[in-house]
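Entry 14. Ran structure prediction on the chain below.
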Amino acid sequence: MPILEKKPINPHPAFRPADPRAAVKKRSTYGEPLVWLTSVGLSAGLLMVVALLAVVFVNGLTVFWPKPVAAVTLSPNAKDSVGGAKSFAGTVIKHQKKITHAAVIPGQKSSDAPYEWQFYIGNKDLYGLGYKYIDNADIVGMSRPKDIIVIERLEYGNAIGRAVSLVEDDGSVVAAEHASFGNRFSAKVRTANERRAEIKVIEKSKIGRVNARMRELTLQSQELEKQVKGLPKHRQNDPELSHERKSIEHEERGLQEEYDQLAAKARALREVQNASTLKYRLLSGQEKDLPIGQVVSFYYPNQLSLVQKIGHFFHSFWRFLAEEPREANTEGGIFPAIFGTFVMTLMMSLAVTPFGVIAAIYLREYAKQGIWVRMVRIAVNNLAGVPSIVFGVFGLGFFVYFVGGTMDKIFFNSALPTPTFGTGGILWAALTLALMTVPVVIVATEESLAAVPRGVREGSLACGASKWQTIRRVVLPAAAPGIMTGFILAMARGAGEVAPLMMVGVVKLAPTLPLDTVVPFVHLERKFMHLGFHIYDLGFQSPDSEAAKPMVFATTLVLILLILALNLTAVRVRQNLRRKYALSAV
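Output, structure tokens:
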């Protein structure tokens, strides 16, 4: 009997199983546009960040590159002039189309619009301004003479012209054409800078120490008088009190004598500073005498080779980092702002990390999970979104007025009504930013603690360790890389904040640093400078916006480099911890 072959039964389409490959293809086709959209958004964001950093780096670094100086001659019929003269020397800043009413008339081509030049002309004390716009049509000649000199001064910006002669303190005159002029002028400037540094040490360090001690003696004397007034009349002339008065008066007289000697020495050095002068001539023919004590540096921009330009670049950049600001922060350096930013960020990090880690350990390891813990976590997450200025107002009210005012009443009552801690200072600024960034540390620490494998905890407990020993010796080391991540995020956010600092201690110019050589060496009550506020002050509060613009880019560059250096250091520590505790799943 033949065997019949079974034919496969073809079920109804409604009961036919779907092809899984078609489903996968459908899902991939559906999700692919979203993947591309996400990648486009990420690429656009990265491009914008890179473009912004490129603008900051290029404009910030070109500030220190020595640019050639042009000798410009204007037409006799030119409507404009520089200080009433038709010839001047200046550095070309930009060449652009001039925006006029005629240039926007309908039908007119943009190529027909007139052009203009912007020059940095210096000599602000003579011209009244440092930058000048000149129409392209008014310029009849432009050259680069080799004998043009640029002199950086303590005041009124740079002086640009031709050196005529050097008049030394003994009355001898050295002409600019003499072979020894350059060396003798350089020696004079170098000596003047050393003498200026000596004056700074006398006035800020030595006289500052004397003034601080005299203030302490004044407060002691006031406190002693308050005690005497509270005693009965027959005890107010007690020999011990009289001896203490005489001791204070004797030390005050000695400090006053020391102060007079130091002040006289500083005055003598200043007189010597101005004994020698440099005579220079503007291209208009006007001559001016400049005391050597006002000269910071000089160079001939049109004579520099490439190697000399590179050397000048690094020297200018170093001076920008190491010197103090001048001329309403538009000249000089930014060292106090760098130092204040670094110290404040370090203090903030040291304050926020312990509290954030302790709070996270309690919420994750000890607190009973329930509605109250969930509410606390919601509150912590909401705190991360509160505007920074709100934290500034809180810091002003709580830290400055309440805590600082209470400290003044208890510990510095003799100094009242002048506040000591009851006013803005670097301590209150650090604590305010620590309060603002603590949610970041809490969230990052909780996530890193949760990522530690459960088996690690159970193994430690099985070996006889207590819960705290397990947390301290096993869980925390394993979670250390994640904790460092929260530390890095908090530090990066706190270093760039400005709004809360304006209310709790940052200032435009701080005469003294929070750390110095005056006992007790660390002065947490002092106000400080900050790079972020320095940028804001230059950009929006400067009386000379054109002179402030290069400083804005240069300061922004330094702030980015400082935050980058702090973050890289923290990342390096995190990588070392991650290699050390390889069991971490963070």
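The longest strand covers residues 87-97. Will compare against last week's run tomorrow.
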